[in-house]
Amino acid sequence: MNLKCTGFLTAIAVSAVMAQNETPAAEVAAPAATPAPVEQAAPAPAAPIAEQATHTEDKFSQVEKELAPENLFSEPTAVRGEDAAKPVVKETTKKFVYRPVYSPSEVETSGAPVKTIYVTEKPSPETIDTDELRGLIPLKFTFGLQGFIGNEFLSGDNGRYEYDSYSGLTWNVGAFALIPLDEYNMAIKTGVMFEHDKVSNSFGYNVDGKYGEYRATFNQYRISIPLLLSLKGARSNLHFDVGLQPSFAVSDNFKLKSSERTSKFDMMDKDYRSAIDWSIVVGFGIRANRYIGFDARFCWGLNNQYDDFPSSVWGGVNNLSSKAVSVGATFYAL
Known about the structure:
Helices cover 20% and strands 41% of the residues. It contains five helices and ten strands. A hairpin with a 5-residue loop joins strand 1 and strand 2. Strands 1, 2, 3, 4, 5, 6, 7, 8, 9 and 10 form a ten-stranded antiparallel sheet that branches. The N and C termini lie far apart (136 Å). The radius of gyration is 51 Å and the shape is rod-shaped. By secondary structure, it is α+β, with helices and mostly antiparallel strands. The longest helix is centred in the first third of the chain and has 31 residues, at 2-32.
């Protein structure tokens, strides 16, 4: 009985001690369960992340600064002598333009040489357009000056079973305009030309056993208006011209000289000269560069220049038409 009472009292005492120890622990743990401290503690790990991002950003900024043009292409520093620790002084400032390159390594070349194409936002002396890349030469409106020099021929049947022919120097100068009809191949070429021809020939005669020589000379001035169709290839600066040219006579003097006398006639005043001459013009040329070109032309006269000249004075004037071959230079304003 005593043993049972003793054991029971011992159990009660132990329970009382344990209950006393658990009560403060519960009171201390209760405030820790509130959510406020948890929210305040969450940002704690962010400090290393922000520090790491800042460090990464600084790293890339440093690399970008090292790759900047002023640093990539900076002048070298001296490594020997008294100025070994001093930078070399820059005498000039270099400017660089970033130009993107489009797929230079992905183009199939089949062994052919490759040229890298640089693309810029603003035109520069090195800029080329799409036509140049394709090898095309477009036609553009332009105007300028032209000059030709060559040989002129007056010839025809004088009705006496003979064929008269006169030859000499011809030159003409004037202005022209080129008006494109399409982008690359066709254009109208027209203008105004001032022309001068001086042709002559000598003829021997025998009258009653007396020998002599006649020399006939034509001195002509006229204004011509070529109306030409100019053709060329899309990739060529060589052009071919064909068309019609009316010429308006301004002055025409005929001189017949012999050992005995000299006769002069104003063919315009005497109305022996037709007012308009018509010719077919065929020519070709090449534009050497933006401002200069070279041309060659052949003009074939279609009408008789002289009618009703007195055959008693000189029979070798009627039924004459002109032909001319000339070369010249062209100066483009645009």
